[in-house]
Amino acid sequence: MAPFTFSPIFFVVLALFYAAISVESMAVPAIFAFGDSLADVGNNNYLNVPISDKSNFPHNGIDFPGQVPTGRFSNGFNTIDFIAMNLGFKKSPPPYLSIKNVGEMLGGVSFASAGSGILQTTGNGTLDMATQVNYFEKTKHDLSTKFGETIVDVHLTKSLFYFVTANNDIFASYSATGAANTTENAQFIKNLVDEFLGHLTKLHKLGARKFAITGTGRLGCVPYLRSRNPMGGCIEALNQLSEQFNAVAEPRIKQLSCQLAGFKYSYFKSTIAMAIITAVPDKYGFKELTSACCGGGKFNGEAQCTPNATYCSNRNQHMFWDWFHPTQSLYFLTAQFQLFGAMNLVAPINLKQLVVQS
User: How much is the pTM?
Assistant: First the structure.
């Protein structure tokens, strides 16, 4: 008697069935992450980029399970990790460049790349936003080929598209031109927002409907820039440029949501969140607001966190892990604000409200 065999269609249906079971209790079936080092979970491990755009070495990951330096710019998890776990996932979506089979992409993918920006001129050798969006387009094609276009289209409308970007574009512009002038700054910000909205529009055309967008923060206050200021304070001209981006981007995204059918979004106001934390740091468990935990020189901000660098033992009390990036504690708090914050922090709705909308 010949052995009983199943058709390929059976296995596709079975795979979808188990996928449906695994995500039934989740708020969203998948998370697709885009952006820079604040969301990178390992893509840059596979790229030929400067060491400053990599973090797959100690002391990074010292508080990650197994003390593994995964490529996250953190002593442990980052914001997208905490958001994913809160939404019912065991872990955050895998880095796109690590994926070996299509099935791994069903629960989402991270396209984020440290050093990258919205503009293709930002972060040479990294995955700029256009490349990340193109990779998503290929991801959709691969998923549709395996599971069927109709099923994948429905899947994507329920999925979360998470963004944290523009930080490096603003850094690069400031580094190149300094404070520039009002007219040049306004034109730069307009061009940057135009480009960003173009990427969001393309993703909407590809099926995205739920967008979580992190506004740029107080970039001039990172330890690296404090270390370059003779007075040790923030570089306020850079903070103002970041504020200008948010002031233009948020209403433009609101306008876009009125133009594109089904477009829903949550915009996280990073600068306001930081102001709240720094006003009462003890409330949130922070003792050190200016110096990095790991690095070297003034504010531990003159050198990168490398295996030879010194690092602190009270990491939970530091806002900054290295010369540019938050500690796991601040990433966690950022995730909480995005998930549950009121309208002064996330507008027009928070992430928890966004994911349950149909």
Answer: 0.92
